[in-house]
Amino acid sequence: MSVVFDRVVVEAQGSRLLGPVSVSLTQRRIAVLGENGSGKSTFLKAAAGLIGPQYGSVRVAGHDTIDDETDVRRVVGFCFAEADAQLLAGTVGEDIELSVRVAKGRNYPQTTAEKVLQDFGLSLSTQRACHTLSGGQKQALALASVLTAQPTIIVCDEPTTRLDLRWRRDMIDVLCALQQQLIIATHDLDFAVLCDRVLVIDDGLIVFDGNPEAGVAMYEQLCDSRPSRIPRGCAAQQVRDEA
């Protein structure tokens, strides 16, 4: 499987959010690093066909994300940074069934929600309301619902954000064990080095593409080279300076 960006530019309200970007993503696990607002999420959404470029093209497994939208939706599963954004049904079981219907169509054979939860190792009742789940449970359910649709490419926006240590470890283990191609945006540098390739995005451009360890080091240097966002007069900054 591959995701190919060809001279892609994404704009919103006259501002450039991404690009120009030309890159071919073929490795099994790819991490995208960058500061907040750098264009990581825009890059991921373009890769998944959730937004279309104003210029250039994105092809997913050979399908153009604009001309072949339905085919792209069948190939790609997307996990948002905020799990609440994609848990659309009232209960756990309903959300799993809805995910399959949306991705595969109404005529796709019914999936047993209990089996999905069992296969994923989630001890949740299918009747439990989604809004009562913990942050980790919501993230896990969102991923389980995506995987139920059997996509061949998984795109995750900051999948370990706001997870406690145990949930973070569990999520990383699950994602790394997937047979599908995995593309993640993350601030979790330890997770990034487990991938096969790292991209660093800055101001909408890819400024690094290559070895994970080298990519993490470059990203750290990039962050260290910039002034603190915290006013120097505040206590937190003073403590940092003293350290």
Count structural domains: 1
By secondary-structure content and strand pairing, the structural class works out as alpha/beta
| N-to-C span | 47 Å
Query: What's the pLDDT, averaged over the residues?
Result: 88
Specify the CATH class: Alpha Beta
Which series of helices and strands comes N to C?
A: EEEHEEHEHHHEHEHEEHH
Q: What sort of overall outline do the alpha carbons produce when their principal axes are compared?
A: globular
Q: Helical percent range? A: 25-40%
Q: Which residue ranges are poorly predicted, with pLDDT under 50 across at least 5 consecutive positions?
A: none
So, CATH architecture? 3-Layer(aba) Sandwich
Q: Describe the biggest sheet?
A: 6 strands, mixed
% residues in beta strands: 15-25%
What's the CATH H-level superfamily name? P-loop containing nucleotide triphosphate hydrolases
> Number of helical segments?
9
Strand order of the largest sheet: 6-7-8-3-9-10
Overall strand count? 10
Radius of gyration: 19 Å
CATH topology (level 3) name: Rossmann fold
Features of this protein?
globular, 10 strands, single chain, Rossmann fold, alpha/beta, 4-stranded antiparallel sheet, 6-stranded mixed sheet, 9 helices, 243 residues
Can you characterise this structure?
The protein is 36% helix and 25% strand. The protein has a single domain, classed as 3-Layer(aba) Sandwich (Rossmann fold). It has a 6-stranded mixed β-sheet, with helices on both faces. The chain has a 4-stranded antiparallel β-sheet with strand order 2-1-4-5. It is α/β, with parallel strands linked by helices and 243 residues long. Helix 3 runs parallel beside helix 5.
